[in-house]
Amino acid sequence: MSKNITIQLKRGVKEKLPSARLIEGEPAYLTDAKELYVGDSDGNAVPIVPDVGTPGTYRSVTTDEKGRVKAGTNPTTLAGYGITDAAPLSHAGATGTAHGTATAGGNAGFMSGSDKTKLDGIAAGAQVNTVTSVAGKTGAVTLGKGDVGLGNVDNTSDANKPVSTAQQTALNLKEDKAAKGVAGGYASLDSGGKIPLSQLSDAILGQLIYGGVFSGASATLSANAKTKLGTTSAAITLTNDTTAVTGYKANEGIFYIASASGAFASVSFETGDWLISTGAGWKKIDNTDAVTGVKGNAESSYRIGNINLTKADIGLGNVTDTAQAPATHVGAGGSAQHPLGNGTTAGFSTYDYTAAEKTKLSAAAAGATSNAKTTVAPVMNGAAAIGSDTGYAVGDHVHPTDTTRAPANAALTAETGTGTDTATPALTSATVASVLQTLWAKIRQVANAKVTANAAIT
What's the rounded Cα separation, in Å, for the pair 73 and 350? Predict the structure, then answer.
């Protein structure tokens, strides 16, 4: 019992062939180059019936690994044929040493001197011996075609010669030229030596038939669709049911291409989308959302195929692949820097601060702390001490009055007694400390011998 075998054919364009992986024996068809390939045991794509060059007759040919002729030439020299053990026509020899002398029944070579002398003595047309008979006949012999083994030959011109039985048998096995490229005949070849797509079987093309274009439910039928549907109508109205000719069951394996935007079978279509029948319903193949080209914003035109974008293509040619600061790591106004430090928010401390701040920092000692105004009142009569308060005194601070000393600006009168100092200086400056007034009075008393040294002054 015979069994139908379906061969699935991969289809694509030639530029994608290097990346294709075909299993052994799996065919692939290049829709742009119109070439057939088949996968070998290593998964490589091997061409089927490759181009072999220009037809013609060649004396020297080059073949591929399968023995198929790839190229041909017509050399005209010994070197062109690769012959290394023959002399060219111009190699006439010098004195007989370049070639050996020819020998009867042996090797060819130069004619010897004796042979030359003998040849010169033979008359033109001379025969070796006298003819004694011809074809067993003697005397004045007339030969017929049978005498020379040509009894079956007719004296007919080449143009009028009949074809032999063997030739006719061979010719009967040939296809008629009129059957080329027609139904029931044989496939033709295009200018590239390839079978046109229109003559390839559905099995090779994936069992899909191009049905024509459609808009809404109206479809214009291709010749192949008419044949499959069994109709001669140029156009039909598709139906979303199993109606003969127009329904999805009859249209199984047929696809239509939308010629305009519209809807059918509750599905929206855009120009270029496919409507295809699975035999159990209508399906849409969306071709309008596919990427038709890619370009970076620095490029002027779109590219298709296998595309590799570089940083220059998108306008980042000067950018290095180095980790950058996060989005929150920016300065005021969106600039890529820190704001200035203000005592509350951290900021740059080695670059982004003012010249005045730099001067202030340079004048401060390492480890210096900020001083505050003191809260301790100044004292009088206290014991001398360095003190531990770190606050500073303001300019309008006031010391307490020392009641144990003479008041400021007190009048000093002349004292009598021993001595010559009778003048009393006038201390009227409010800024002279009372301790100086008391000291002066004491000095005068000592000088006038009124009191002893270190005696209490009242």
Answer: 81
